[in-house]
Design goal:
The chain is built from five helices and 20 strands. The protein has 451 residues and is α+β, with helices and mostly antiparallel strands.
Amino acid sequence: MRVSSARIAPLVIIAIAAIAVSAAQRPGEGAGSADPTYAEDVAPIFYENCASCHRPGGLGPFSTLDYDSVKPNLRKMKAMVAAGRMPPWQATGPRGVFRNDRRLTDEEKAIIVRWLDTGAKPGDLAKQPPRPRFADGWEIGTPDAIVQMPDAYTVPASGTIEYQYFEVPTGITEEKWVQAIEILPGSREVVHHVLVYAKVPPAPRAASPTPAAVPAGTPRPQPLFVRNREHAIPRDPPRRDSINPPPRPLGALIASTAPGTNVVEFPEGTAMRLRPGTILTFQMHYTAHGHEMQDRTAIGFRFAKEMPVEEIHAAAFVNGSFTLPAGARDIAIPAEIGVTQPVKIWGLLPHTHLRGTRWKYTLERPDGTSDVVLDVPRYDFNWQTYYLFAAPLEIPAGGKLTSMAWYDNSASNEHNPDPTKDVKWGDQTWEEMQYTGFLYSVPNRRLRPSP
């Protein structure tokens, strides 16, 4: 079949027109304009992904709720968004693995960068979407229980401040099941991060009859976790705390807050047990802010309405026996934890101090297969993130989870407190840690059948 050139010309014109209309209506290019605008294209992205921190009273240094407050920060914004440093998320890998993944989509990043490249036009500000509303206090709503530092701590105007530890009884007299936890700093400007540990003091020993003899050959129950004894923390590490030193022991890490992360809400059917008599320890990292301030941080708990199917536990595995040589770069320090029964891991918290640069976690199965389950190539001490799995990581009996942390103790690390000194394990920021907090449950210890 032959088509005359006279008929081809109109078809070409129609095709070109269709392409032009399609291009004009691409997402992020604003209705009736080739360039995206703040009001119609960028504000919805900021409201959804950035404003929880970047708002009046938030942790961010400027607000993204208004064009006028965004405009003076355009240059910095482009560098941070293009590099994927904002919103803060240090892990790589496919989306959907972690339920708290804060990364922008490729389309959202492209819209913001193109908006910046085309003059950062405000657009018709009357067309901005409704501003999101944020709670002035607790994000989880009014907590069912609040535990606060007993007294306010005075943060000096300048200088390096050692970690401070405050031990506080919860006053809980009956067992509670926690569905959500939130830490509320008293003065956000000076609170860099908070770790909260929980322990239950042992009951006083009462006189009891001599226990019956265990028959010979009875096997001892296996511990759930297998730890590497060579990685143990030194029994009595040197301490320089002068005001509020840490109690021993601290207990299990149950909550943390830092810029970029705070509320932990456990998945449906799971909850964390809070036992009667529990004592909390607040580990406080303060940073001077130019003038003296008072802080009295609190932690809030929202309780589950019923007993969960599976109990969430908080634990950690570490390597406390390392030395980082003075001036050395790219030092790899391993740690591992094995399991004797199937275990579900619900979240991982990698933690080093100012010399830590990256992390990698690998699940190793008894059959010899393995998978990288968390890769953090640009760890940042200023953004402490609990990586919460969308579906729990299942470790079979006989499997293990290994971690590798890398450190830079050289002068090229601008955050290094002193590159001339060897560094060992210690709580303070000028010391170091190889510490992984994790949340787990044991499937064969179900408390009740699934609904």
